[in-house]
Amino acid sequence: MKKIHILASIPFVFIGLFFACKNNNAENEPVKETSLTGTLTLYVDNTVQPITEDVVAVFESIYNNATITQVNKTETEVVNALLSDSIKVAVLTRKLTTEEEAHFKQKNISPKITHFATDAIALIVNKRTNDSIINLEEVLNVLQGKASDKIDKLVFDNQNSSTINYLLKKAGVTSVPTQNVYSLQNNEEVIKYIDKNAGAIGIIGVDWLVQSPPSLQKYVNNVKVLAVSNTDTITGNKKYYKPSQSNIATGDYPLTRSVYVLNYQGRDGLGTGFAIYVSAHEGQRIVLKSGLLPVEIPSRDIIVRNEL
């Protein structure tokens, strides 16, 4: 009887092993990509790295089967990756040019462009510096290769950065002058440089000041944000503005740019879901708290209690 009992148990052992192997294989299978599941490599302009990190972290915490790998690069590197088809989704502070878009038109890929925030370029100096304002014309003159009595040195985060590309375009030039303009590696290095060097003006994305990582905070505390000139188109009067949310919203601060999710997947995928989330109510609340300007100001519900 004992022998028969053992033989009778063998089929159940095989059945158990079958389902165990099946479940194990299911766990090892990659999650199918949808708008809320799967994996995505997201290249990000590193001048807006902090806000993107915040949105990605919250998005992944809500959607457990979504994994977004954020890779922070310069604007030039991000655009080159898109044009080489190395990536399909990116966060940039500009849209692609007509010439760049031609690459995707040849492939019949229609982009999905989502504007989700407005950023500002901040001009910072060491706290020991007496000046608290700067004329924008002075900055543009230096970028045009002209001498300046007000500016000794302009320091950018990277020679391929979106900040330098933006200001070169504003100055009407295509190349960086050989004098008085310097570039480092990233925004962190600019902040640390200004912390140690009075007399230089650092140029960074304002996101790095309002959302600086803890390791950088002591350096941020030792820099001062300059108010930049802007001329009233009606009165002709010149006033100076800092890159606050309110000044970005009114357009008084002169150095602002839009932030986009550029999706060239050519189909609905995780890039679509991320873009929808960051432009919807919850995503816009994250942008609002970051110090940047959301595209739509999230409403606040106020509960009024009747005590009568």
Automatic annotation (TrEMBL):
PROSITE patterns assigned to the protein according to its UniProt record, in alphabetical order: PROKAR_LIPOPROTEIN
Residues making up the signal peptide according to the UniProt record: 1-26
Top-level taxon of the source organism: Bacteria
Protein name: Substrate-binding domain-containing protein
Keywords linked to the UniProt accession: Signal
Domain PBP: 34-278
PANTHER family listed in its UniProt record: PERIPLASMIC PHOSPHATE BINDING COMPONENT OF PHOSPHATE ABC TRANSPORTER (PTHR30570), PHOSPHATE-BINDING PROTEIN PSTS (PTHR30570:SF1)
Classification via Pfam families: PBP_like_2 (PF12849)
